[in-house]
Description:
Layout: H1 2-25, H2 32-39, H3 43-49, H4 53-61, H5 76-93, H6 95-105, H7 115-134, H8 144-166, H9 171-182, H10 189-193, H11 201-212, H12 214-218
Helix pairs in contact: 1-2, 1-4, 1-6, 5-6, 5-7, 5-9, 5-11, 7-8, 8-9
Amino acid sequence: MAKQDRAIRTRQRILEAAASVFEKRGYQAATISEILSVAGVTKGALYFHFESKEHLALGVLGAQAQQAPVPPRACKMQELVDVIMLHVHRLQTDAIVRASVWLTLNQQAVDLDRSGPFERWGGVMIDLLESAREQGELLPHVKSEETARVVVGSFAGVQAMSQALSNYEDLGERIAELLRHVLPSVVISSTLASMDISPQRGRLVQEEILRAEPEKVLEKVDG
């Protein structure tokens, strides 16, 4: 078990180093040798976990999915908001998530498949929208796949703008603004009136998760 724990910690250290180098140098200019230097591990240790720089980048891209999930909510549209706002908080506080988003939105990384995070986010949004529909939370005209595309695309654009203007410091406020504009065209008024879409919502959800299952939040996912 101790050996497995060491392997998980080594993998995490490599990912953190890769995230730092990708964010600093860009994907194309980043080198394995610099990642090794930052991580402080041997080449053999790195290649045990990652076959190439591309696999390292894909590992960083996957960081957006490797976190403790939002607890299920009775209101599925509140759960959708909480998923988004928790990501905002993690983006502001987790270097790997920040690098993952940077890679996802980096159009310079032309030889890297950056579709995974977009597809995952789309799937998460569709599932929650369909659950919300079943509970009568959506307006009759709403099409889940169309709404998911709008939300994910707008979310990505606001992240890019916030990074350029404030290095994500104002991201909570900007995403709250986005939700205040989008949700009234999607959610029935009685449900919308009960929802919390405040800028600090992500921090509150993270604190809730830490209180409930601190060991799962602190554990780094191996896979």
